[in-house]
């Protein structure tokens, strides 16, 4: 049975997926990847990969706190990404 680790894209692919249409998103997503990826749980990693499938306007609203993801695991990842930028 698959443990889920093989379903995760390689780090180089994740770096590419963090490159968005908005420089601000690039910076925040790449910073999370550099800071937290290695120590993140498998569930958090899978949620981050799912987060990268979202459209830029939705991500921007989440990362700026305008709206919150309804899915709990995505909300957790969003809070971890925003952590260094909190007031």
From TrEMBL:
Q: Name one GO biological process term.
A: succinate metabolic process
List where in the cell it is found.
Cytoplasm
The domain of life is: Bacteria
One GO cellular component, as annotated: cytoplasm
What is the protein's major site of localization? cytoplasm
Q: Does the keyword Chaperone apply?
A: yes
Q: Name one Pfam family in it.
A: Sdh5
Q: Which UniProt keywords apply?
A: Chaperone, Cytoplasm
In which family does this protein belong, per the annotation? Belongs to the SdhE FAD assembly factor family.
Tell me which PANTHER family the record gives. Answer: FAD ASSEMBLY FACTOR SDHE (PTHR39585)
Per its record, how is this protein called by name?
A: FAD assembly factor SdhE
Q: Which organism is it from?
A: Natronospira elongata
């Amino acid at each position: 049975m698959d443990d889920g680790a093989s379903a995760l894209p390689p780090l180089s692919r994740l770096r590419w997926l963090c490159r968005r249409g908005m420089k601000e998103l690039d910076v925040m997503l790449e910073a999370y990847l550099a800071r937290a990826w290695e120590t993140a749980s498998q569930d958090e990693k899978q949620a981050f990969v799912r987060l990268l499938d979202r459209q830029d306007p939705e991500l921007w609203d989440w990362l700026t706190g305008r709206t919150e993801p309804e899915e709990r695991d995505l909300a957790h990842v969003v809070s971890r990404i925003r952590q260094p930028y909190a007031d």
